[in-house]
Design goal:
The protein has a two-stranded parallel ribbon. It contains three helices and two strands. With about 80 residues, the protein is mainly alpha-helical.
Amino acid sequence: MPAVIMRSGHTTPEEALQLFEDVRGRRFVGIHWGTFDLAEEPIEEPPKRLEAEARRRGIDPERLFPLKHGETRRW
């Protein structure tokens, strides 16, 4: 689906990291990506964009957890 349709209920990886910084998050858990092939970008692209944007912003990659399907995390 075009981004204009998705915008009301979704964020881009770049927007999500801005929100993460705005709320001073400690851990970023990326979910709800790669589930359905509805967007215009390749289905595997969001985690790559997340990593690139985090690097650009100087966010420690150890704080980012873009979970794969079925993956869990314990803290």
